[in-house]
Amino acid sequence: MSGFFPEIEPYRTFRLKVSELHELHVEEAGNPEGDPVLFLHGGPGAGIAPFHRRFFDPAYWRVILLDQRGSGKSTPVGETAENTTWDLVADVETLRRHLGIERWLVFGGSWGSTLALAYAQTHPGPVRGLVLRGIFLGRQTELDWTFVDGARRMYPDGWDEFVSHLSARERGDVLRAYHRKLTSPDPAVRREAALAWNLWEERTSKLVPELKPCEESELERETALAVIEAHYFVNGCFLSPTNQLLRDAPRLEGIPGVIVQGRYDIVCPASSAWELHKAWPGSRLVIVPSWGHAADEPGITEALVEVTEGFKRT
C-alpha cells in the first residue's frame, strides 16, 4: 500500500447539537454499509480537511468525521466556553449513539490521539481498535517542550521570531503571554498572535516545512485554532496533572491498537509514543524513519494507510 486513496466527497453531512451553545459539523464518506471508523482531528481546534477522508478505503469503510467544538464548520467558531476534553469525549459518545453504531475503529493523530485515548479509556466498550499518530499525552512536560525549552533548540530561528512579538517580561511565560494576546478584546492583537502561534507550529510540524501565507478566507479558522489550542494548553488539557492518560493506559487492555510515530517528530517527540506503548498492554509501535509529525508527510501517510488496512475484517 502506498499513499492516500483517491479523493472522495461526503455522501452525507449534518449538524449535531450537543449543548445549548455548541453545534457540530459531521460528515460521512465511503461505504454507508461499511465498517465504521471515526476520524478525530488535531489541534485542538484544527478541524477536518478533505484529505482526512483519504486514509480509508472508501469501498470498505464508513468514514465518520466531525469538527470538534469551536473548530472548522462547527459553531460558534473559536468558542472556548463549554469546551474541554471531557465535553469532547461526551460529544463523541453522543455522536456514536446518534448514528446507532455499536462499535467502531477510532483513528486520531496529535491532539486527535489525546482525545482518542481519553475517549477509549472512558468508553472502552464501543472501541474495537485504535490507530494513533504523533502521540500527545497532554502533559506539562510536553507543553514545556514546545513553549519553554525543547523545540527551540531545534528551531532557534523560528523560536526567535515567535517570541519577538512578546516583551522581555512576557517571555518568562510564553504560553500564558500568548493566551492573553489570543483572548485580547482587540482583534488586531488576536490576529497577530494567531498568525505567529500557527507559524511556530507549522515550522515544527514537518521535516521540511512548506510555509505558506495565510489567506484572508482562512483567517477566522486560523484564529480559532490558535485560541482553542491556547485555551486547552493553559488549562493542562483538562487532564489530571498525574499523567492521566499514561496512568490509565492499562484500561486499554484488550483493545487492539497501533501507534504510528515519526522518528523526527519535533511537535510530539517519540518519547511519548514509546512511553504509551510500554504502558498499553498489547499495543504495537511503528516508528517511521526520516519523517516528522504531519499526517500528510509521505512516509507517515503510507504507514497510517497500511495500519488501517490491517483492521479490515476478513
Describe this structure in words.
Helix 5 (156-163) runs antiparallel to helix 7 (187-205). The chain has 314 residues and is α/β, with parallel strands linked by helices. It is built from 11 helices and 8 strands. Helix content is 37%, strand content 16%. A hairpin with a 5-residue loop joins strand 1 and strand 2 (23-30). The longest helix has 19 residues, at 187-205. The chain has 2 domains: 12-139 and 240-309, Alpha/Beta hydrolase fold, catalytic domain (Rossmann fold); 141-238, no CATH class. The chain starts with 11 loop residues before the first strand and ends in a 5-residue tail after the last helix.
What are the salient characteristics of this protein?
about 325 residues, alpha/beta, Rossmann fold, 2 domains, eight-stranded mixed sheet, 8 strands, about 15% strand, globular
Strand and helix order: EEEEHEHEHHHHHHHEHEH
CATH topology of the largest domain: Rossmann fold
Q: How does the overall form come out from the CA principal axes? A: globular
Under the CATH scheme, the architecture of the largest domain is 3-Layer(aba) Sandwich
Give the strand line-up of the largest sheet: 1-2-4-3-5-6-7-8
| Rg calculated over all Cα atoms | 18 Å
Question: Short description, anyone?
Answer:
This protein is α/β, with parallel strands linked by helices. The protein contains 11 helices and 8 strands.
